[in-house]
Structures are given as structure tokens and as C-alpha cells.
Design a protein that fits this description.
The protein is α/β, with parallel strands linked by helices. About 50% of the residues lie in helices and about 15% in strands.
């Protein structure tokens, strides 16, 4: 059977594992945890050159996933977060990234296709829940009714997927190819006849193997035909009469025994297809959640886009300039928090550059670096970027370090930890990398920190990666700017009236960090602190 993969250019071969087959068999018989079924059937992440340990910790991706919602017909559905996170943090190759973009472009331009996507996803959800749901009543009849419901939901999901894939020009067309091939299979035709039989429209011709005691040992369907004779017993009474005739002939099995065998065989024959549909439901969540991210941003007044890419050193006919250009970039975490985020532009025409970022505390430097990092990650994952337009440089790895936090088992002090961080950058990054670091060499005195900083800048120049570094070594940054080194650029937080940051960035080096302004804003002035001291003294004198 073909693999139903709509995320990757080259579908990965994935036969259902033994554990998945066992889980499906148990689910059909008695019900199984939906989480376990999805865990076993979810497609493995695409091969990726990105190393998650180099960026995931500082991006707060678990919080970001809250913006990737699935809202259908007035209800919110929770995507499989672990799988969605795995897709976003394992960017695929360029061909697979473009495949995903083409799917989203087709959906964004075709409302009818989106409605088919939603209908297919809801049908797959019903199939998932039918497999996970236990018998509500219990007993043999209830078991049969539940298994018939699972097969009915499977048929409905196949039909809705067929409508989704029909006429699609993107990878969604693979769904149409899969459902057509499935519909032509003998196993699926038997399923259709079986469901028709339940409505008394077909006759099943079978071969039975009986034990010496008259019990049913084996059952096999050998033919199917239309119920043409008017005397063919129909409905509940007719089925009871047939069971009675069987018992009068001395057999010890009931119609329910036969039907149970029929249903089990039908499901077993289609087990591989069921596994593919479960995996497809998880892949559809990537596209639905991406559309949810776009819809949420637009509702709050922010534009998103699908990025264009150039390869480092790929200048030439049809390639365009190798540059990074983001227009209307915003930080999605701020938007999720209800903050009115300032949009800004980021333009860089040098793919082997180092940018040094300076400015006051709380001026937006860390948020800027964070927005750049998540834009690169989401773009290479094939989904929407938080910007009005985006032209990015393709990278093979991203290194992000924004947080400074002590660990319980930390063996080094601040300087030692900083030096290990620098070493890790060069251990994991190559020329085709994006490196983003907040407050380089802040863990030691300025003179020693500047020496290390200068050494690292020289090595970054040798490496030839895209690098962004923020620093409070303002005098050092000003001296570097005066040297006019190649591939070294400077940006500072723009200040408006009363030296208040505008949260935008302009060329140059900041003159001051405006620490006094920040201290005043947070109530850390001499007068404020003296007031706290006096209040504590009075409280002690007036104590009980």
C-alpha cells in the first residue's frame, strides 16, 4: 500500500509496526487510548540538519504552540502538540519545505478546499474517537455495533479525504491518489459490500470451518452478490429466523458469531490503511494549525507570509541576491500576551555578516533576536512567518542562546559557563548557520570580556555564518565600529521623545544603556529604596 505522506517531498516508507498493529487490533476489539494510537501512528520527523538542543530551550516553543490553534465550526480542537512541535523543530530539506508552502498556498487561495480539509479532519477525528471509545453498554450486540461503527467511520473518512484530494495541485493530490487506489482494492470493496449487507442489500457467500462439537472455528468470505430474491430475509426478524434455522440444524454458533468473524476479517484486511489514515490526521493538523496561526495574527492586525529563500553563495541568473529581508516583523509571543507589538524591518545583504546590537535595557533587543530566530525556524519548517514579507537565507543549523540561568548541577561559574557556551557554538555551527547570542561575555569583567569578545568576532569572520550578538560593552562596540571591519555591522535601539525606546532598530552604536531610566521605571532609586527602609523600621517599632 502507498504511504500517505503530505509533509515530505520523498514519502518515507513506514509499514505499521508490531506495536501499532497490536494496538489497532485491541482498539477494534475493546478500545484503546487515542493518545497511544496517535503516538504509534504519527509519522517520524523528517531528517533534519537542525539540532534541537541548540535552540529549543530559549524559544519557548511550548508557549508559541498556543498560537497554532485549530478552530472549526465554532469549536476549538487540540492538535497533537508533541507531533506539531516535532515538525516545527525538525526543518526538512528545501524540497519538502516548498511542498508544505505549496499546500498552504493552495489552501489560502481556495475556501472550498479549506472546507473539504475541515470535513476530512473531523471525519478522521470521529474515526480516532471510535477506535478509542469502549463499549457503552457491553455485551455481544454492543461489541458488534461498536465495530460496525468503526468501519462506517473509516469509510466516511476515506470518502471525505477523497473529496479533499480531488483536483488538488499540491501534495494534497496525493490523498486523492491514495483513496482511489484504496477504493479499487479488494479489501475495501468487501468492506462496502459488508456495510451494504448490514442494510440487507447484499448476500455474503462464505466458507465455514466447524469443530467436532459444532462450534465455529474459521470463517472466510468467498463471494458477494446482490440480494435480488424477494424472499431474502431482511431486517432484525429475518436475521433471527436465519439464526433459528441454523440452530435447528444442530450448529452451535449464532449469527453474532459469524458477524464478529466477518467484522474482524474486514478490519484486519484494512489495518494498514487505518494506520495511514491515523498518521494523515496528524499531518493535517500541521496545515490546520498553520492556518489557525495566520487567522489569529490577521484578527489582531498583524500580517504573516510564506518566506522566499536564497542559498548562501547562490547569486546568479534566477537566484536573486543573497540577502535577508523581513518587512513588518513582529514578536508573536508579545501578540499572544495581548501586547501591542511594534513591527519593524530587518534588512541584511551580507550572508556572512556579524551584527552587533546595542541599546537600553527593556528596549526590545532580546525580543528582536527572538523574533528573528522563530522566523527562520518557522520559515524552514514550511509554515507562516510573523512578518508581512520575508526573504531569508537558507541555513543548515541554528544556534540560539538568550537566557542566563543557573543549573543545580552546574559545575562552572558564570565565566566558565560562558566559555562553554562559546565552545558549543563552534562545535555545532558551520558556514551555513544562523547564530544568535544575547549578552556575549557578560559573565566577567569588561576588559577580559572584551578580549574574549574580540577573539570570537575574528573566528566568526572565519566561519562565515550569519551572526547576531547583543552587548552592553558600548565603548568596545564604538571602537569596533570605528575600525570599519569587513562583514561587521552595528544596530542600535531607536530612541524617541524623552529617550524612550521605540522598539525599532537603526544603524549605529548606542551611547548609553539608560540604566537610570530603567531603575526609575522599576522603582529602584535611592529615594524609593530609602522609603522602603524607613517603612520596615517603622513596622518593627510598631510591632506587637
Amino acid at each position: 500500500m502507498d504511504v500517505l505522506d503530505i509533509l515530505n517531498e520523498r514519502p518515507a516508507h513506514r509499514a505499521p509496526s508490531r506495536r501499532l498493529r497490536e494496538a489497532l487490533t485491541f482498539a477494534f476489539a475493546r478500545g484503546e487510548s487515542e493518545e497511544r494510537l496517535l503516538e504509534l501512528s504519527a509519522p517520524a520527523p523528517a531528517p533534519s540538519t537542525f539540532r534541537q538542543e541548540c535552540f529549543v530551550r530559549d524559544l519557548f516553543l511550548d508557549e508559541l504552540l498556543g498560537a497554532f490553534t485549530i478552530d472549526l465550526r465554532g469549536r476549538r480542537y487540540e492538535p497533537l502538540r508533541a507531533q506539531l512541535k516535532a515538525v516545527l523543530t525538525n526543518p526538512p530539506d528545501l524540497a519538502s519545505m516548498r511542498l508544505r508552502q505549496r499546500v498552504l498556498s493552495e489552501l489560502a487561495g481556495d475556501r472550498d478546499r479549506v472546507q473539504r480539509l475541515e470535513a476530512a479532519y473531523l471525519a478522521l477525528l470521529d474515526l480516532r474517537r471510535a477506535l478509542a471509545g469502549p463499549d457503552a453498554i457491553g455485551g455481544r450486540v454492543s461489541h458488534l455495533r461498536r465495530r460496525l461503527e468503526i468501519l462506517t467511520q473509516f469509510k466516511r473518512a476515506v470518502e471525505e479525504l477523497g473529496r479533499l484530494g480531488a483536483g488538488a495541485e499540491s501534495a494534497l493530490g496525493r490523498i486523492g491518489t491514495f483513496t482511489r487506489a484504496l477504493g479499487e482494492s479488494e479489501a475495501y470493496r468487501r468492506l462496502l459490500h459488508l456495510l451494504d449487507f448490514e442494510d440487507s442489500r447484499t448476500v455474503l457467500e462464505s466458507r465455514l470451518a466447524l469443530g467436532y462439537d459444532g462450534t465455529l472455528r474459521r470463517f472466510e468470505i468467498v463471494g458477494v452478490s446482490l440480494a435480488e430474491h424477494s424472499s431474502f430475509p431482511r431486517g432484525r426478524l429475518g436475521r433471527w429466523l436465519r439464526s433459528l434455522l441454523g440452530l435447528l440444524k444442530g450448529y452451535r454458533f449464532s449469527e453474532d458469531d459469524v458477524m464478529s468473524q466477518v467484522l474482524d476479517q474486514a478490519f484486519s484486511d484494512l489495518e494498514g490503511a487505518v494506520a495511514e489514515l491515523l498518521g494523515c490526521s496528524v499531518e493535517l493538523e500541521f496545515y490546520l494549525a498553520s492556518l489557525g496561526f495566520r487567522r489569529s495574527a490577521l484578527a489582531k492586525g498583524y500580517e504573516v507570509c510564506l518566506a522566499d529563500f536564497t542559498l548562501p553563495g547562490a547569486d546568479g541568473p534566477g537566484q536573486g541576491p543573497t540577502e535577508r529581508r523581513l518587512e513588518g516583523l513582529f514578536n508573536p509571543w508579545l501578540v499572544m500576551q495581548g501586547v501591542s507589538a511594534v513591527t519593524f524591518d530587518d534588512v541584511l545583504s551580507d550572508a556572512s555578516s556579524t551584527i552587533i546590537l546595542t541599546g537600553p535595557n527593556s528596549g526590545g533587543k532580546t525580543r528582536y533576536l527572538q523574533a528573528l530566530a522563530v522566523s527562520q525556524l518557522l520559515a524552514q519548517a514550511g509554515t507562516y512567518v510573523p512578518a508581512r514579507s520575508a526573504q531569508l537565507i537558507w541555513v543548515e543549523q541554528m544556534y540560539l542562546s538568550l537566557l542566563e540561568s543557573a543549573e543545580a548541577d552546574q559545575q562552572e561559574g558564570r565565566l566558565g559557563t560562558e566559555l562553554l557556551r562559546i565552545r558549543q557554538v563552534f562545535e555545532t555551527s558551520g558556514p551555513s548557520s544562523l547564530i544568535i547570542m544575547d549578552e556575549l561575555c557578560s559573565g566577567t569583567n569588561p576588559s577580559e570580556g572584551e578580549q574574549i569578545f574580540d577573539m570570537v568576532l575574528g573566528l566568526f569572520s572565519e566561519l562565515g555564518a550569519q551572526v547576531l550578538i547583543s552587548t552592553h560593552f558600548l565603548d568596545f562596540a564604538a571602537r569596533l565600529a570605528a575600525e570599519e571591519r569587513a562583514h561587521l555591522y552595528f544596530r542600535q535601539v531607536e530612541l524617541g521623545a524623552h529617550d524612550m525606546p521605540t522598539f525599532r532598530f537603526v544603524p549605529g552604536v548606542a551611547r548609553t544603556s539608560l540604566a537610570r531610566n530603567t531603575a526609575a521605571r522599576l522603582g529602584v532609586t535611592k529615594d524609593e529604596l530609602l522609603g522602603l527602609i524607613e517603612a520596615r523600621k517603622r513596622a518593627k517599632l510598631d510591632g506587637p
